[in-house]
Amino acid sequence: MLPKRSLMGPGPSDVYPEVLNAMARPTIGHMDPAFIGFMDELNELLRYAFQTNNTVTLPISAPGSAGMECCLVNLLEPGDKVVIASNGVFGGRMLEIARRCGAKPVAIEFEWGTPVDPDKVEDVLKANPDAVALAFVHSETSTGVRSDAEALCKLAHDYDCLAIVDAVTSLGGIELCVDDWGIDAIYSGTQKCLSAPPGLSPVSFNDAAMAKVASRKTPPQSWFLDMNLLTGYWGPGAKRAYHHTAPINSLYALDEALRILKREGLDNGWARHADNYQKLHSGLAAMGLEFYVESEYRLPQLNAVKVPEGVDEAGVRGFLLNQYNLEIGAGLGPLAGKIWRIGLMGASCSEKHVALCLEGLKDALENN
Amino acid sequence: MLPKRSLMGPGPSDVYPEVLNAMARPTIGHMDPAFIGFMDELNELLRYAFQTNNTVTLPISAPGSAGMECCLVNLLEPGDKVVIASNGVFGGRMLEIARRCGAKPVAIEFEWGTPVDPDKVEDVLKANPDAVALAFVHSETSTGVRSDAEALCKLAHDYDCLAIVDAVTSLGGIELCVDDWGIDAIYSGTQKCLSAPPGLSPVSFNDAAMAKVASRKTPPQSWFLDMNLLTGYWGPGAKRAYHHTAPINSLYALDEALRILKREGLDNGWARHADNYQKLHSGLAAMGLEFYVESEYRLPQLNAVKVPEGVDEAGVRGFLLNQYNLEIGAGLGPLAGKIWRIGLMGASCSEKHVALCLEGLKDALENN
Do B100 and B176 form a contact (C-beta atoms < 8 A)? Predict the structure, then answer.
C-alpha cells in the first residue's frame, strides 16, 4: 500500500474523500440511458465552473496535456499561423504541439517567472496579420505566474485571432470567466484546484471555435481528439453516437468535485485560495523565505519559493516527504534546484495545509 | 445516484469490488518515489498479462482507442504503406487513423462476422512489397470474431512487416501470447476482460517496433502519445522525466485488476471464459436463439446473437435494463438491429451472470 501524502506540489492536489468515494461507484455502461443523463448534468456543472454558456463544454478522456492537444489539433490546420506566447514549460509544450500539427507557430518568449506582456504580443500580432490564433497559458504551472487572460483575449480578437487558453491550474483557483473574457477555446485539468484525481481535461469551445472546426479542409490529425466526433457522443443533440468508451468512474469523480465547487461557490473558492496564500506568504516571509514571482503576478494556488543559498533543495523535499508525508514540488527547466513549488489547490488549500507546510519547512531548514 | 447494472455488453464489464476500492485509495504524486516503484510493479504485471518480456510495456493514459492511435502514430510515418485487414468497426477505425497519419493504408475488407483470411492477406502483402506494417484486430468487438493472430503475425514477418495487433477485447479472455506469436506492437483496454473501469490502454512494443520509432525522420504527430516521451517517464531507465500527469487512481485500479488476473492465472481465466461461453451457448440454443458467427471463430467473451424475426431488438435491451438492471449490447453498423452482443468478460464471466442473462432473455422474449 502506498503512503498517504499531503499533496502541496503543482498537482495533483489532495482529493476530497467524497470524490474518492464517488470514483468507487459501480461502473455503468457508456451508452446506458441513465449515464447519458449524467453526462448532461456533468456538462452543465462544467459550464458553471468555466462561467460559460458554450454548448460544447465537455471533459476530454485524458489528462490536461491531451486537452491542450485537443484544442490545437482541432483549431490549427497545416500551414496555419499561430502566435504562441510562452513563459514556461506549458507555453513551450504548446509550441511543440503546434509544430506537430504542421502549423506555423510564431513564438514570443518571456522570461520564466514573468507574465506574458500584452504590448509585446500586440507587436507580434500586428506584424503577423495572417495569424489565425493566439495561444497562451493563463496560469503557468511551472513558475506560478498569472498572465492577464482578459487583456490577451481582447487583443486576439482585435487582430482577428481565436484566443486559445491553458487554464489547467486556473480553474477553481482564481477568477476565470470564459464568456466575459471572450475565450474561444479553453482546456483545464481535474487534479489541480478541482481536486479530483488526474486523468481528464475539461474543455470548452465557443461558436467561433466550432466554426473554425467546421471549416477545416482536412480532418484533425487526431481521431481520438476530433471535436466533431466527440460532440457526436457528448452532444449537443440527441445522437449520442459511440466514439470511444468514456472513462466512467473518472467522470463520477469529476462530477462530485464540481458539485463541491458549486456548493462552495466560485467567488468563495477564489477568496479561500487568496486567503490561504496570504497566510502561507506571511509564514514563509517570517522564516526569511522569498517568492520568485512579483506579487502582482503570483498565483495564490501555486507559489514559487526561492531555495535559500546553501540549502539542499532536493534534500528538503525528501525530508518533508519522509518526515511529514508532505509533497511539495521541484522547479523545472531553468528553475530546477532554484525554487520549490508549493501548491494550495482545492482540497489542499486549507489553514491546516498551510500550518503543516510551515511547520515542515521550518523543521527541514533547521535540519538539512 | 445511478442504478447498479450487471454489465454483459461489449464492455465495460462489471468491475471487481476490490478494484473499485483500489480506485478510491488516496491519490499520490506522479513523481513520488513510492509511486515510481508502483509503476515498475504495474508494468511487470502487464508483461505477465501480455506474455511478453518487452521492456516497453505500459498503460497509455486514455482509453483503448488512444492505444490504437498510439501504435499507429508512432509506427507509421507520412507516406508509409500499411496493410490493414478490416472485418468490423475497429479495423475500420485503424484505417481512418492511418489515413490521418498521412500513411498509405491498403485496406483488405472482410465481411462482418467473418475472420481475417490469412490467404487473402498474403496476396495483398505479396502485391505490396513496400508495405512496412500489417495491422489487424485479434478480437473484433463489433462482431465477436476471433482472427488467427499467430498466423497473421508470421505472415507479416515473412513479408518484412511489423505486426500491429488490436487486443482490446482479447486480453485476459482468450489465449494471447505476445512474444511467442511475434506481435511487434499491441494495445488493449482495461474495461473488457481485465474488469477495471474504462480509461486506460495497456500497450507493448518490442525491439523491432522501438527501432522503427527510433528511425523516424519526423516526430509522431501526437505529443501526448509520443512513445519516446512516454518511455522517458515510464522507463526503462532511471530518468523518470515528467511528461504528463499520470492518471494515478485509474492506475491503482488497473494494478488491482492485474493482481486478480495473476492470482487466477491466465490459463484458468481463459478456461473460465470458455466454460461460461459453453453454458451460455447451451442455454441460448435451448431457447432457439442462434449465433451470428461460426463456432470456430467465436469469441467466448463476446457473443453475437441473432435477433429472431419479429422481435423488437431495442425493446428487449430496454426490458433487460429496466427489469433486470442487465445491460447487453446492440449491433453496430450493418449489424444494427440484427444482433445482440452478449459479453462474458472478466468479472462478468460467471455462472451467475449466465443464469441472469438466460432468465432475463427468456422473460424478455415472452413479454416483448
Answer: no
